[in-house]
From TrEMBL:
Molecular function in Gene Ontology: aminoacyltransferase activity
Family: Belongs to the FemABX family.
UniProt cross-references to PROSITE patterns, sorted A to Z: FEMABX
Organism: Candidatus Woesebacteria bacterium RIFCSPHIGHO2_01_FULL_37_10
Species lineage: Bacteria, Candidatus Woeseibacteriota
A GO biological-process term: peptidoglycan biosynthetic process
TM region(s), chain numbering: none
InterPro entries, per the entry: Acyl_CoA_acyltransferase, FEMABX, PG_Glycine_Bridge_Synth
Pfam families, sorted: FemAB
Keywords: Acyltransferase, Cell shape, Cell wall biogenesis/degradation, Peptidoglycan synthesis, Transferase
Domain of life: Bacteria
Protein name, as recorded: BioF2-like acetyltransferase domain-containing protein
């Protein structure tokens, strides 16, 4: 299946946040200009890679670093043949959870961890309200505040959240969980090529006490199925090959919904002297 990063909507998002987008065949190439240094070129989960076209872009944009994040292991031998080395820090999640949405809701519930099923029931009793929304500004600010308080993440992300929502337009959904009319949890869900992506999610301390993250994720899964998606992609879990300790907590949460793990090869990098 075509990856999210190789869709017209994602290419539009990349232009919104300042990247130059080039296309050859069915593959998008993303270029970030760095003042004085040159440019970075990245190709993410492509079906096909034109190394000749990479060379053309490298000259055109004075590229000093090329990053390829292959879709599968079949592409690795050719990547390494052209001198690319494995990076220790992929920019895309190298491992994720896929939930099969062709199964019945009853079967999906059965395959969850028993505590997750129980938390869904508890959440429904806690008088929270689930609603769809188009208020991306509220969600972006809420996500940023939760990230700051819970993960000490001060790097601004609100622009990226807003722009990806705007780029995907009708293929983006916001799901809010409210308690006493206050937002306590939310998810930005993206849909593309029969896959729904759990792109951004947040919950505050009150929401976690009310099991709002569990309710919100389950509602997102049901919405993805209603939209006709075949796969629900949790968009990233902890990967022992490229360990990030901060990912372990939400990995337990995502795994509790069942599904199966999917691995990607990570990132491969090549440096060159810009001319």
């Amino acid at each position: 299946m075509l990856d999210l990063r190789q869709t017209p909507e994602y290419a539009k998002y990349m232009t919104y946040i300042g990247w130059v987008v080039e296309k050859k065949g069915n593959t998008y190439y993303y270029i970030k200009k760095i003042p004085l240094l040159g440019s970075v070129l990245k190709i993410q989960r492509p079906l096909n890679i034109s190394y000749q076209y990479i060379n053309v872009l490298a000259v055109k944009y004075r590229v000093f670093q090329v990053i390829i994040e292959p879709k599968n292991t079949n592409q690795i031998s050719r990547i390494t043949y052209y001198g690319y080395k494995q990076s220790k820090s992929p920019s895309l999640p190298s491992k994720t959870i896929h939930i099969d949405l062709t199964k019945s809701g009853k079967q999906m519930l059965k395959e969850m961890h028993y505590k997750t099923r129980y938390n869904i029931k508890l959440g429904k009793r806690s008088k929270v309200k689930v609603k769809s929304s188009k208020n991306i500004n509220l969600f972006a600010n809420f996500w940023q505040e939760c990230a700051r308080k819970q993960r000490h993440m001060f790097l601004p992300q609100t622009r990226e959240i807003k722009e990806i929502y705007n780029a995907f337009e009708k293929n983006a959904d916001l799901i809010f969980v409210l308690h006493s009319n206050e937002l306590v949890a939310g998810i930005l869900l993206l849909h593309s090529n029969n896959i729904s992506y759990y792109m951004y999610a947040a919950s505050n301390a009150d929401g976690k006490k009310l099991y709002a993250p569990t309710i919100c994720a389950w509602e997102a899964i049901k919405l993805a199925r209603k939209r006709g998606s075949k796969i629900f992609d949790f968009e990233g879990i902890y990967d022992e090959r490229f360990p990030l300790k901060s990912w372990k907590g939400f990995t337990r949460f995502k795994k509790s919904f069942g599904g199966h793990e999917v691995e990607y090869p990570g990132a491969f990098v090549k440096f060159r002297f810009p001319i």
